[in-house]
Amino acid sequence: SDAVPITESTPIVEGIHISGITATGCRSAAGFFYGLPEMPIRDVRLSDVSIQMTTDLEEPGAEPDMVAEQINMAGDGIWCRHVEDMEFLNVRVNTRQGPALRLEHASRIEAAGITTRQAHENTPIVEVIQSEQVTLSEAYVNH
Fold first, then answer.
1. Cα(5)–Cα(3) distance, rounded to whole angstroms?
2. Does 140 score more than 90 pLDDT?
3. Cβ neighbours of residue 134 closer than 8 Å, sequence gap 6 or more
4. pLDDT digits (tens, 9 = 90+) for 8-43
5. pLDDT grade, residue 62 (50/70/90)?
6. If you count Cβ atoms within 10 Å of the first and of the last residue's Cβ in the chain, which end, N or C, has fewer?
7. Nearest-5° Cα angle at 139, 90 to 18
8. What pLDDT score does 143 carry?
9. Among 55, 56, 52, 32, which Cα is nearest to 44's?
């Protein structure tokens, strides 16, 4: 959707720093950062993070709350939309489907050491859509 004027009720989400986390058996998405066109999520850093999505095809996913469009996630990677100034360092995401990291309408992103155990057919490890100033190094499959 289009940006709307910023008011005092516009949420501001920034300054999220996560490190040293291991999660297994996750069902919906490894991460979901969904800002607003008029107020992107800013200043996020994930470092030394390992997330293993469930491989059980019977395990249902879920739809994120507070998002206008329908997005059904079931074993997806880290999903970022309307974000700025994000950094991913040594992040491992083993997905059931989709890329390990998806960036859409993102700017000033640095990603180094994005790994996954298995790449899915016709799916990149990192997917970048309508984004700018994205620096990506060392995205690979690591069994």
1. 7
2. no
3. 103, 106, 107, 109, 111, 128
4. 999 999 999 999 999 998 888 899 999 999 999 999
5. low
6. C
7. 25
8. 65
9. 32
SS3 (DSSP) at 90: strand
Residue owning tokens 């910023």 = 6
Only one residue has tokens 């984004």, namely 131
CA dist list (Å): 60 to 27, 76, 78, 89, 119? 7, 12, 17, 29, 21
Specify whether the CB–CB gap between 60 and 54 falls below 8 A.
no
Contact partners, residue 98, CB within 8 Å, separation at least 6: 75, 76, 77, 120, 123, 127
CA distance 39 to 5: 10
Specify the amino acid at residue 97.
Q
Please give the residue that has the higher pLDDT: either 118 or 57: 118
In whole angstroms, what is the distance from residue 48 CA to residue 58 CA?
A: 29
Q: Are 93 and 100 in contact (CB under 8 A)?
A: yes
What does the mean pLDDT of the chain come to? Answer: 90
